[in-house]
Amino acid sequence: MAALSAVTSPPSLSTSNPNSAITNPSGSSDSISSTTAKSAPDANPNPDLHSYSLLNLSFGHDRSFFSACTDRGLRVFSCHPLAEIYRHDCHPLAEIYSHDGRGLGSLFRCNVLAVVGGGPNPQSPPNKVKLWCDVQGRFVGELACRSTVLAVRLRRDLIVVVMERKALVFNFSDFRILREIETAANPKGICAVSEWGWSAVLVFLGLQRGQVRVEHHAARRTKYIEAHASDIACLGLTQDGRFLATASTKGTLVRIFRTADGTLLQEVRRGVDRAAIHCLAFSSTAQWLAVSSDKGTVHVFSLKVNSETPENAKSRSVSSFAFAVTSLSIIKGVLPKHFSSEWSVARFRLREDSRFIVAFGHVRNTIIILGMNGSFYRCLFDPMKGGEMTQLEHQNFLNLD
User: Does 209 or 316 have the greater pLDDT score?
Assistant: First the structure.
């Protein structure tokens, strides 16, 4: 099964509600003893680390750690410093691994993990979501859906399940279905959910090409945003859900919107040639946006969405001068449109043969880059001078001793 998402200190997983969509498989063959579940050894005590095959990567909610789903098990690493802090190398849990890389979420420091059927030896169908309780060391609940589950997102109060043309929102406390949301065809399970805040912001594909649907859950308010002319390829959401970044299948422009009213706040340009956007990541203050793509580059853009501070204003002024972006706006009616777009402040070049995801580090002006080839990069960008980032660290996290 593919681990999809997790939450810290969730409510009790009660299944007493007769109308619940969850069944409790406690005591069934799906249950796993805590001895087995807690870092049980692999059948081979000295596996060849180079034989690990990565299936999926995901940063934890606070970006201080990340999870790697491999064909041998689940491994969790701290980012500061890079070190393995948790692993499941056990065959009884082989069902948590997926062959198609459908989303992996945080397990360390969490109580509940959502997993979905898949992998080379699936033990449950791909239309079921199982809830694994790490404290109890067993599966404690199960969601049965009508079609294949492509993504799951968990908050402390909600479970969001995404299928190809529909998304379901469940209440975490009693597992009632709160919303059924129709979407356009969504084979990649694209969605975004705010990670904290009393009011959840949920973003799905709309019914039209290039459209996104923003749900302000507590207010029961829906906002449709016509984000792009092409299909949506990637979404990024600030942790509080205030700002949304979108990219289309064309992959040249990234647009930033305010989720409250759908206002377009800024448009930045990754490049002029088509690209597949892999990741859109905001910094914690929404001052920066990092973008990774199949072109083997990571770009960092300066954002204007938050309140202006003297430091931010100076940084943007210098970077804009350095890259001659805003100064060209006076002649944008003469030059092609891409000359007047806002370009990145900093960039880092990678290999083009792997998929990379990014997050901003806890140290100021640093980013962390994770690759499906096992690469871990820590880089520093200069917000004043811009240009190429400085590589501070590069390791293969799968080969750590």
Answer: 209
Strands across the sheet with 253-258, in order?
A: 232-237, 243-248, 253-258, 264-269
Which pairing describes strands 158-162 and 151-154: parallel, antiparallel, or unpaired? antiparallel
Strands 166-171 and 158-162: antiparallel
For residue 281, the cross-strand partners are 290
Distance CA 151, CA 144 (A): 14
* Residue from 133, 126, 172 nearest 149 by CA: 126
For residue range 37-80, list pLDDT tens digits in order: 233 333 333 444 456 778 778 887 788 888 887 777 778 899 99
The Cα 353–Cα 244 span in angstroms is: 28
Backbone phi and psi for residue 41, each to the nearest 5 degrees, phi listed first: -70, 155
Pairing of strands 375-380, 366-371: antiparallel
pTM tops 0.85: no
State the DSSP H helix or E strand holding residue 37, giving kind and residue range, or none if neither: helix 34-37
Instruction: State the residue for tokens 């997790």.
Output: 6
Residue type, 64: S
Say which amino acid occupies 140: V
Integer angstrom CA distances of residue 305 from 121, 193, 227, 269: 46, 19, 17, 16
